Amino acid sequence: MTTPSPAFQALLDQLHPAHRAWLSAHDESEAAGEQVLLYGRADIEERNTSYEVQRYAPAFVAVADDSGGRQLMLRIDGGPRCTSKAWGRTAPARRTRSR
What is the spatial distance between Cα 19 and Cα 68, in angstroms, rounded to a whole number? Predict the structure, then answer.
């Protein structure tokens, strides 16, 4: 069974009990339908790290994606439970001077 880092485990511990139970039973990610991929324990930390979820959406943990650039995220700070976010460019583009 994959074990997340202690810091990321602290985030997972804040998820809804039903999702924590799902994660404890699924080490590998699992397809839900034709496009949605629910992250298992082996992938969830890497996906959140790669998309810098805690930097740009610190109140959320990404738990799935639609294979097209949208993340399904669950809230961990007690607010509305779920949101979907399209990850593209999350920082302003750098402008270069033309000569």
Answer: 23
CA angle 79, 81, 82 (to 5 degrees): 125
- And the tokens for 22? 């799902």
59-91 confidence digits (pLDDT tens): 999 999 998 888 999 988 776 666 666 655 444
In Å, the largest CA–CA distance within the chain is: 58
Report the helix count and the strand count for the chain, using DSSP H and E: 4, 5
Q: How many domains does the chain have?
A: 1
DSSP letter for 65, please.
E
CATH code of the domain containing 54: 3.40.1580.10
Alpha helices (H) along 1-99: 6-12, 17-25, 44-50, 53-56
